[in-house]
Each structure stands twice: as C-alpha cells, then as structure tokens.
C-alpha cells in the first residue's frame, strides 16, 4: 500500500465526513419531517460511504479485486438495462449468453491483458454472434429492435465499463505498479463531477440544458460542476503520470463525456417512462444511475491515455 | 403438517438468497402491511419461480408459516419432484384431475388453513402461457373464501418472473422483478361466485404495470 493510496483514502474519508456533518446540521435545523431533497441527500451520502468502502475493499485485492468489482457492476447494470427492453422467448439464449458468457469472458480477457481481443471481442464477435443466435430461433417479430437493444446494452454495460479496470493494465513508463491509482483518478473526477454538477445545479441552476430529457441538468450546474471537477482533477495529478495541466485537461474531457453519459441514460429512461434504472443504491437509484457517466468516460479516457502515454 | 421443518426453513432461506441475487426482487406493499392475520396470497402464475418470489418477499416469520398450493399431478410425478415438493419446499399439494382424484382439493387446503398456514394460491389453476395478462379464475378462490371468510385474500402481482424463468426453461435470465401486494379482499355477504371471482381478478389486474410493458 503506497503513501499516495493512503492519502487518497484519508482524503475521501475526510470529504465524506464533512458531507455527513453538513447534512446532519442541515437536517437538525430543518423543520420536521425532513423535506424530500434533504432526505435524499442523507440517503445519497450514506450510500457513498458504502460505495467508497466497497471500492476500497476491491482495491485491497489489487487488480483481481477491481476486475471482480466491475464485473459485478456490469452484471447489475446489464440486468437493469435488459429489464427495460423488449424481450421475447426467442431471445433467451442470447440473453443468457450475455450474462453467463460475455461478462466473464470480457473481464477474463482484461485479467490476462489481451488488448487485441478485449477491444474487439464485443463489437466484432458478439455483435455478429448475438443476432445470428436470435435469428436461429426464428422469431422475426421486432427483430431489428430486439437485436439493437441487446447490442447497445452489452456495449454500455459491459464493453464500456470494462475499460475502467483495463486502465490497470496500461504499461505507462514510470507508472509501474500505480495502475490502480489511475483508476481512482478517473472514478474520483467523474463521480466528483456528478456530485459537483448536482450541487452547482441545486444552488445556481436556472437554464436547462435539455428540458425535454432532464429537468435537473442546467447550464449553471454543468459549467460549474465540470470546471470545479477539472480543477479537482488537476489537484489530483499526484495520483497519475500526468502533469497538473494534463491531469486537468483529461479530467475535463472525462467529465464532459460523463455528462453525455448521464444525458443519454436520461433519454433512455424518459423513453421507457421510468425515473430510475433500479433501486440497488439507496438515494441514487440503480447501478446504472450511478455508473452512467463512467460508461461514457472510461473508454475515451482509456484510449487517449493509451495513445499518448504508452 | 404444522410448522416448517429445518430442511424446509433452510431451503426457503437459500431460495430467497438465490431469488434476490438473480432478480433483485422487491416487495411493494400497496394497500396492506407485511404483517397480518392468516392470509391467502393469490397471484398471477406463469413460472415455477412465482411462489419462490412471493415467499422471498414475505417476512421470515410469515414465510415460515406459508405454504404454496401446487398441482399434485405435476409434483408427485417422479421421485425428484416428490422430494422437492414434499421435503424441500412447503407445499400443499392438491389434485387437479377431477376423474382420478382421491382427496378433495378444497378439504386439503382448508386443513392447511385450519392448521395455521397462510397459502400462496394461483387462482388461474395453471401457468398462463398465453399473451393475455391473466386467465379466467377457477372457482377455488371463491370456495376458500366462502369456507373461511375470516382469512384475508391478498392480491399479489408478480412482475417479470415469466421473462426470468418461462415454462420449460431451466436457467433463469437475470432481470429485475417486483411483487406488488394489494389491499386484501373479503367475500361480501351473499356475493355471487362469478361476481366475486371477477372482482378478485380485476383487483389483481389493477396491480399490473402499464400495457407497454414498462414497470410503473
């Protein structure tokens, strides 16, 4: 366990402690029963404690722990996604294959660091095999729709998310043995940006970015959140092989991608008439409600770092 | 048969863990509380997993005194099925075949109720394999209600289980499920059989999500 890891961990505990104290004071001064915003804030902070604890435990087990953690995140996310899609009996084998074969194989390929295969396994082989299996079952009703929904689901929930643990395998010169910290950097900036966008939006939000999709996404929240999260990313440069400026720019990029991830997830939920993906994480909704920004940020961040630093 | 055996309790707890891992099942108590008097939980039926889902949603104490009503013709066929239904699970087996049956199904179910067991009951009488959300109810629910009017009839809408484990499937597809428990029904004085069964069916259907297949 390096000093930097300890610093990061203590920093997170400090931030959460401050958040819990602020929420406790707000709750104490507010009229009872608590307004729903405050209730939700308390639930969210409590869930953050649990998530930080979960991620910390995974980090203790190193690369294997993080891969297992994200395989589980993919499972939960895919389950939430498929629940909202149109499935027919003929899709059974494809669906079972997504859960029982695609998830384990994709994460195993990351474990053995076979970049050439894990980067094309889903978009080439699975994308061809899945419609073939569905077609073999012979049910053509809404075929195109069903196949597209399955492919988009496996792309978001498994392929994109698997690029988070894949960061640990990048052979960046001078960064040996510090791959986990790069993951911590990405998660901290993207999730930090979500939280900061929420705070800036609640405090200053006036002008909606996409009123037809989400009432809670405002330009004030977006700009304030991404700017402050990028500054935070620059301040966390010591976790990474980057200079402070590079760290800030990469953080900004990851946060902008994260914003689009949240926007797309909101559009899907709006289309299906649900508010949240599920109820796994109290106060936040489902796994995808928490991971949507990471879904879009992870592969882009991964490939830029891979291109420019290895 | 009163009180669950150790084996039944252990397998019920294990099935509950499994059901939660695969389906993340959540109970929605819309019109009643988890604790109540002796009950008949009546639910839509399309999958073998249905009664596991309802049982998982119950409080462990209630789960311990609740048995599922199942078809004897199916569960007594073969040694494995007989072991599952008789030893592993808490079931009340009734014979659905009018011609060959030896025991009156109503008497078997009433004996279980009188022994202090709540029942999970599928009033359609069989698994629904049609595109219709709910088949016509058979008379069983009415006969139970008429014979034991003090027992609460709780409608339970099971959502998505037919997608997780349809008839003939062995491996479950992980999808999120919910069980919506509605307000309890009672048979009105002098209520006609058909009127009551229609009312019960409507009450159960009212708990279903919207037509486009998305959850509420």
TrEMBL record, chain A:
Alphabetized GO MF terms: nucleotidyltransferase activity
Signal peptide: none
Keyword Transmembrane: no
Gene Ontology biological process: peptidoglycan-based cell wall biogenesis
Keyword Transferase on entry: yes
Pfam families xrefs: CTP_transf_1
Keywords: Nucleotidyltransferase, Plasmid, Transferase
One cellular component (GO) term of this entry: plasma membrane
Protein name as it appears in the record: Phosphatidate cytidylyltransferase
């Amino acid at each position: 366990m390096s000093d930097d890891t300890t610093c990061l961990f203590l920093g997170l505990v400090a931030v959460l402690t401050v958040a819990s104290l602020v929420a406790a004071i707000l709750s104490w001064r507010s009229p009872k029963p608590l307004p729903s915003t405050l209730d939700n804030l308390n639930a969210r902070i409590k869930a953050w404690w649990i998530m930080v604890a979960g991620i910390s435990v995974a980090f203790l087990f190193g690369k294997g722990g993080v891969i297992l953690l994200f395989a589980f995140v993919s499972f939960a996310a895919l389950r939430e996604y498929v629940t909202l899609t149109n499935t027919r009996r003929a899709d059974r084998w494809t669906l079972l294959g997504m859960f029982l074969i695609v998830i384990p194989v994709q994460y195993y390929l990351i474990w053995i660091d076979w970049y050439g295969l894990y980067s094309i396994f889903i978009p080439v082989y699975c994308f061809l095999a899945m419609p073939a299996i569905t077609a073999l079952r012979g049910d053509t009703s809404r075929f195109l729709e069903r196949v597209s929904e399955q492919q988009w689901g496996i792309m978001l929930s498994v392929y994109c998310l698997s690029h988070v643990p894949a960061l640990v395998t990048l052979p960046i010169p001078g960064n040996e043995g510090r791959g986990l910290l790069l993951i911590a950097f990405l998660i901290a900036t993207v999730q930090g940006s979500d939280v900061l966008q929420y705070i800036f939006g609640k405090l200053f939000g006036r002008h909606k970015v996409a009123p037809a999709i989400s009432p809670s996404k405002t330009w004030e929240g977006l700009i304030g959140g991404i700017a402050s999260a990028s500054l935070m990313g620059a301040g966390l440069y010591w976790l990474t092989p980057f200079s402070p400026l590079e760290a800030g720019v990469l953080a900004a990029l990851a946060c902008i991608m994260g914003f689009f991830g949240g926007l797309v997830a909101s559009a899907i939920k709006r289309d299906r008439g649900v508010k949240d993906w599920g109820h796994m994480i109290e106060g936040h909704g489902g796994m995808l409600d928490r991971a949507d920004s990471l879904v879009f940020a992870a592969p882009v961040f991964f490939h830029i770092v891979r291109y420019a630093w290895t | 048969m009163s009180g669950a055996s150790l084996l039944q309790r252990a397998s019920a707890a294990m099935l509950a863990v499994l059901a939660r891992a695969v389906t993340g099942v959540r109970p929605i108590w819309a019109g009643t509380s988890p604790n109540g008097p002796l009950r008949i939980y009546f639910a839509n039926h399309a999958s073998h997993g249905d009664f596991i889902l309802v049982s998982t949603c119950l409080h462990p104490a209630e789960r311990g005194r609740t048995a599922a009503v199942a078809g004897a013709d199916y569960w007594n066929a073969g040694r494995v099925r007989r072991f599952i239904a008789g030893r592993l699970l808490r079931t009340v087996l009734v014979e659905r075949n009018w011609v060959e049956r030896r025991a009156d199904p109503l008497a078997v179910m009433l004996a279980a109720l009188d022994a202090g067991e709540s029942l999970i009951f599928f009033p359609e009488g069989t698994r629904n394999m049609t595109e219709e959300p709910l088949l016509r109810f058979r008379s069983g629910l009415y006969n139970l209600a008429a014979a034991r009017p003090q027992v609460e009839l709780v409608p339970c809408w099971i959502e998505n289980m037919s997608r997780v484990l349809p008839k003939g499937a062995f491996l479950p597809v992980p999808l999120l499920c919910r069980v919506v428990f509605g307000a309890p029904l009672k048979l009105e004085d002098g209520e006609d059989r058909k009127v009551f069964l229609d009312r019960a069916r409507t009450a159960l259907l009212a708990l279903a999500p919207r037509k486009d297949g998305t959850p509420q």
